[in-house]
Amino acid sequence: MKKDNIYIFEDRGLLYLNGTDVKEFLQNIITNDIEKVTNEMSCFAALLTPQGKYLFDFLIIKHKEGYFLDCEKKNIDELYKQLTLYKLRSKVEILNLSNEFVVAGISYEKFLTFDNSKDIEGFTIKYREDPIFLDPRLKKLGARLIINLEKLYLSLKKLELKTGKVEDYYKFSHELGISQIDNYKLQNKLFGIECNFEELNGIDFKKGCYVGQENTARIKLKNKLNKKLFAIKIIEGNLNAEEILLKDKEVGKLLIKNENPFALIKIQNDILNYENVYQCGEAKIKVIKPDWI
Q: According to the model, what pLDDT value does residue 128 have?
């Protein structure tokens, strides 16, 4: 990521939740602790199935009397329906503000040049009432801005930012081992904890109950985590299969097949040989080693 570039995420959407019961509502269903989210701190969280399987992930940002949920736009209608299903009689309003606000990314280095910024994952400041926050998953991912669409280009000019290619940002995210595109393809195919949400600050094991908490805690406490989601790179050939083989033995599955592919790979005792060359259909692949695991 170049220091003075901004990356406009047209593939990201925004839900806004507010109302008397909004904090309790979110606390009862998400993997992280909503008490962590303040005007100065944002967080990463997920919504799981009752069995602990992945459904959605999102960033949560305090805004006025409610919360923004920064999520993949492909999932936003489905996420809206799921939240509405859980809402029941709670005094919570859920709005889709994707047409009014835009989500964008800037470099870690640029964020630290802003007044009042701090080198803390999730740290949040305001620029003309709009939040700018250091990515709570990993600060190497840089910061994100949520800006009213009408103010976008004036704000970019004042912040001395120029538009970069969003493909460069997602390539960088893939190299870091963090999946952000086509995550809907993960739904119901792996447990939330297998998505590395613990390492990416997305699960709080000290908070109370939430949807999927029982299985998530059991996998953690009984050390039954034997698969994880990894970014993969193609050494040669084409990805034309789901099964991933090592010495003719199936050790994983390709789950996200795009320019930045991800696969669920078996591990043993948190150990994986990153020098292994795997077979996936006609392709030879290797696992990208994240420095945060």
A: 83
State CA 126 to chain mean position distance. 21
CA dist., res. 284 & res. 44, Å (int): 33
Residue 115: give the domain boundaries: 5-176
274-280: Cβ within 8 A, 24+ apart? 276/246, 277/235, 278/232, 278/244, 278/245, 278/246, 278/251, 278/252, 279/244, 279/245, 279/246, 280/232, 280/239, 280/241, 280/242, 280/243, 280/244, 280/245, 280/254
Total-model pTM:
0.95
CATH number, domain containing residue 230: 2.40.30.160
The CATH number of the domain holding residue 165 is 3.30.1360.120
Domain membership of residue 56 (yes or no) is yes
Residues 254/242, Cβ–Cβ less than 8 Å: yes
Based on the fold, state whether residues 70 and 197 are members of the same structural domain. no
Q: How far apart are CA 235 and CA 281, in angstroms?
A: 13
The rounded distance, in Å, linking the Cα atoms of 209 and 202 is: 15
Residue that finishes a domain, picked among 112, 147, 176: 176
- For the stretch 1-22, pLDDT in tens is 889 999 999 999 999 999 999 9
pLDDT at 134 over 90: yes
